[in-house]
Specification:
The protein is built from three helices and no strands. It is mainly α. It is elongated and about 90 Å long.
Length: about 100
């Protein structure tokens, strides 16, 4: 502990700033890696979902395929209904709504 007796205030201040910098950088790296990991997990989970549908065989993913067709039909219906409001000369189907 004798080497601490000869340290001036500038060196101590430099050491304190370095320690604070390392703590801040450490926190940023930890939260950054968590954010990157969460983003990659979410992004790759989408590919895993479609990969399990494709790789499951016809019996395993038949229900999922029906679900995707239902979602596509609902999206198409919403698109048709919203496009009817934009067209002043709407066809008879749009006049039902």
């Amino acid at each position: 502990m004798e080497f601490l007796q000869n340290v001036d205030i500038g060196t101590m201040l430099l050491l304190a700033i370095g320690c604070v910098f390392l703590c801040v950088v450490g926190l940023l790296v930890m939260f950054g890696l968590q954010l990157i990991g969460t983003t990659l997990t979410t992004f790759l989970g989408i590919f895993e979902f479609f990969g399990s549908i494709i790789g499951g065989g016809p019996a395993a993913w038949c229900g999922c395929l029906v679900f995707l067709f239902i979602c596509g039909g609902i999206a198409t219906l919403v698109w048709v209904i919203t496009s009817c409001n934009a067209n002043p000369y709407a066809m008879n189907f749009c006049q039902l709504f």
